[in-house]
Amino acid sequence: FAYQFDQDGRYTIFLYGYVNDIYGREYRLESTYDVTVARVLDLDPGQLPTTPYMQDDFFAPGLHLFPPVAANVTVQLVQMPFSDPAQAITTTITGQANRFGYFQPPPGAIPLEFPGEFRVDYTAVYTEPDGSLWMGTMTWGSVIEGPGAQIAAHGRRGMDYQSDTIDDMPPWFEN
After folding, report:
1. Phi, psi of 108 (to 5 degrees)
2. What is the DSSP string of the chain?
3. Dist CA 172 CA 175 (whole Å)
4. What's the rounded mean pLDDT across residues 53-73?
5. How far apart are CA 27 and CA 109, in angstroms?
6. Is the pLDDT of residue 174 over 70?
7. Is the pTM of this model over 0.85?
């Protein structure tokens, strides 16, 4: 598939066809894709992606945008209490970053009340006065641990070079 888009914006691509395997069996391909053609807007969330949380914490939905622009921001968080998709709780926060590319909703906007899993989707869109479109998206997920943790991690941070070292070890590798 090769196509040159003539302008920025949202497109819907419907792709269909077929491929044959080595025995001549035909396999149909058919799907629809939503694509946005834009300049890349880099999203730097206010937390490290995939950060796990504890029950009764609050999700930190803030972010910085690069280049710094006053983009429209949407943060959607889907919590699955007890890892059950049937109990999914969706919270959506929308707003606008300031002219320095900083977006921060009020504290406590998204409580994490149940143990389980979550998925977060960030979207930021900015249109320049000349009509040029900038867009960035980011998605990740992690866990919300309950009060009776079932997993214990052992070890220590950093690298263990007590018995072996890297030749000419840079200072940032020293413990």
Report:
1. 80, 15
2. -----SSSEEEEEEEEEEEE-TT--EEEEEEEEEEEE-EE-EEEESS-TT--EETTEEE---EEEES----EEEEEEEEEETT-GGG-EEEEEEEE--TTSEE-PPTTSEEE-SSEEEEEEEEEEEE-TTS-EEEEEEEEEEEEE-SS------S-SS---SS---TT--GGG--
3. 8
4. 94
5. 47
6. no
7. no
